[in-house]
Here is the input.
Amino acid sequence: MKKPVISGIGLWTPANTITNEELVIAYNAWAEAFNTEHSDDIEAGNISAKPSSTAEFIEKASGIKSRFAYCKDGILDTSRMRPRIPARADNELSVQAEIALAAARKALVAANKSADQIDAIIVACSYTQRAYPAIAIEVQHALGIQGFGFDMQVACSSATFGLHRAYEMIKAGTATGVLIINPELTSPQVNYCDRDSHFIFGDVAVATVIEDSATCQSEHSYEILSTKAATVFSNNIRSNFGYTARVSDTDPFALDALFHQNGRKVFKEVCPMAAEHILQHIEQHNLAVENVQRWWLHQANINMNHLITRKLLGRNANENEAPIVLNEYANTASAGSLIAFHQHHADLSSGDHGLICSFGAGYSIGSLVIKKR
Here is the structure.
């Protein structure tokens, strides 16, 4: 019987950071210019004035203080308000493959593996920069891996759903070593002119190696006891960017083609859904909440995490029990729970249990119950 284990994880972060204060200065300057330009329409009630923001508002609403950006240039330019990422030729490495490779190489080192010991690659993230060829196959080619690769998208649950597929491959024997990569290049889909969402996302890439316990040679490894997934359709988190804009004669860069959400409904509906999902999952292993040493939760909003852990534990969780990383990284879409795992796993003892969980658009929820070897 094959026992899938997480044997290594790698994290890549961009060189550029943007603080709340920097974002607010740029946004407020843009909003003031917009209100001045459209003062007559605003006064007539045809359009609404753009509200101002503060760094304190952002931190209170989300817990976010800063975020990483693949390309900072353009984001704080009030005449542009989006990153300036030059196009690359077809024969050049794509941006997303570039950041995926950076994380993948770190994961291989952590797993004490070489590329020739991997035979499957999954690139799982909220957005891929093109339809085909798959970013995963481009990464496979760059690493010189013999095998196969594919891309998959389940919004903010992409990372855990990707880990699920790798777990199943190892169990079934269809792969001996799987590299799951989450190159979350979120900044191109952020509306930096929207006060309620311009601060939410950051760019990052995470990669994880899953293999059979019999071949594992890493310092820290975790047996995957089981996986659990659930999806329920909702329009409360949505991005409408897609190739059909060409034939529907709509603007492919309209505001509804960017990330947008009904945050209050998401908070109200997803938190209890996630808490119930997690409880059901650990109960499959006859585990009570006090038997789980660490909760690596999706990093979307600190208030969501606090509410979920209170529902689980009956009290506030401390930083050791449920680590928070979104203050530094912001919401990194599917990568958040794995950043928390990357930063806070080495201190656990053999036999300790933990749970990785992500949740987001769809609605979708994915979790893994794991045990330190």
